[in-house]
Amino acid sequence: MATKSSFLDKVLGRIGRLDAEGLQTVVQRLARERSFLETLFNTIEDGVLVVDEHGEIIYFNQAVTQLIGLQPSVEGHLITDFLPELDWKKISRLDNVGGQRVVRHEFEVNYPRARFLRLYAAPLDGEATGSSGVALILHDATEARQKTYEAIESERIQALTLLAASVAHEIGNPLNALHIHLQLMEREVKKLRNDEPPAQRSGAPWRASSAKTAPRVANHSHEETARKLEQYLAVAKGEINRLDYIVTQFLHAIRPTPPQLKPASLNEVVDKTLELLRPELDNRGLTVKTKLQPRLPLAPLDATQMQQVLVNLIKNAMQAMTKEGTLTLQTGEGSEGVWLSVADSGGGLGLMIVQRIIRAHGGRIELESHVGRGTTFRIWLPLHERKPRLLEAGKII
């Protein structure tokens, strides 16, 4: 057994033998240690929240007041009253199970001012089963996020430079094809003119035999020319469509469009995406499991953009896994929205690819990672447009 080294452990071992003066000394020492710890916690820039097993707030430092505007009078209130984005049921469930768990939430708050926060949840009783409460660490990642966006923007500009060169090259190919086929069409038109009967071209008299055979030969020649023209026109139309696609994709890359929100089903997004990626998944020998909630409520979302999100997540998962890995897709709903998760059996998933789209939808991102067991990436989308949280009447902060 490890040697007890803390002051409190030593006192508890002989508390029954202490007299009044000794107890007074202990209380004074504990008061000093509490004062020291409170001073220490209040100098930390990150917010520290402690909630009991029921999710009620029992302690928070000054940084929490600055980050989300809590005041001492809220002790004893539920944490979800002030952080509705927090999935307390999930955190409590994982705490009860015990073991090493990493739970992280990322969300935005607008009060007391707009910030982007990262929240980490750690059980107070370590890896033990059951629950004696949870410590929540709030980190203000607003500045780091801004720097990340600036770095992304810089990379985007560099990528666009390369993309512009690539687009110029790609456009050159169909333009060359169009030029060639237009020349071929021009030649065929000239042939049509040259295939007119001799009498019509020069006014010379026809012989009886030539009068019988010329129309037949001319008709055959015209049919062959028409067939070639139709073929060349089909190629030209295809190249024009290809040009239109290249230009459209280029415009989307340099000018992201806001989501067109319409009631849609996440289940349908999953089905269409898997249908699109099925050949690549099969080629890699990956097993795909789907656990889609039946009768999932429709949510306001841009189905095309959400499919783009899911494609990116699945491709990242493919890169994280070796052959014969397992990819699990799930959907479900909570009190405020619907969710979609992508879990792999590999090393991890990237987040920056999908952050812009999820943020534009008013959603949030969660990541749960277990060393050696893979990563679960979950996105939440609101069922309804979120309204700002109002302060209680007469409350001054």
Number of helices: 10
Return the string of H and E elements: HHEEHHEEEHHHEHEEHEEHEE
Main sheet: strands, sense, barrel: 10 strands, mixed
Please identify the oligomeric state.
Answer: single chain
Q: Strand fraction band?
A: 15-25%
Broad structural category: alpha+beta
Kindly provide the radius of gyration, computed on alpha-carbon positions and rounded to a whole number of angstroms.
35 Å
What topology, given as strand order, has the largest sheet?
2-1-5-4-3-11-12-10-9-7
Q: Roughly how many Å apart are the termini? A: 49 Å
Q: What are the defining features of this structure?
A:
elongated, 19% strand, 397 residues, ten-stranded mixed sheet, 10 helices, two-stranded antiparallel sheet, alpha+beta
What is this structure, in a nutshell?
The chain is α+β, with helices and mostly antiparallel strands and 397 residues long.
Detailed description of the structure:
It is built from ten helices and twelve strands. It is α+β, with helices and mostly antiparallel strands. The strands form two sheets. A ten-stranded mixed β-sheet has the order 2-1-5-4-3-11-12-10-9-7. The N terminus and C terminus are likely disordered.
SSE blueprint and pairings:
Blueprint: H1 7-13, H2 20-43, E1 47-51, E2 57-60, H3 62-68, H4 88-97, E3 103-109, E4 115-123, E5 134-140, H5 142-194, H6 198-202, H7 208-254, E6 262-264, H8 266-283, E7 287-291, E8 299-301, H9 303-320, E9 326-333, E10 337-344, H10 352-360, E11 364-370, E12 374-382
Parallel strand pairs: 7-9
Antiparallel strand pairs: 1-2, 1-5, 3-4, 3-11, 4-5, 6-8, 9-10, 10-12, 11-12
Helix pairs in contact: 5-7, 8-9, 9-10
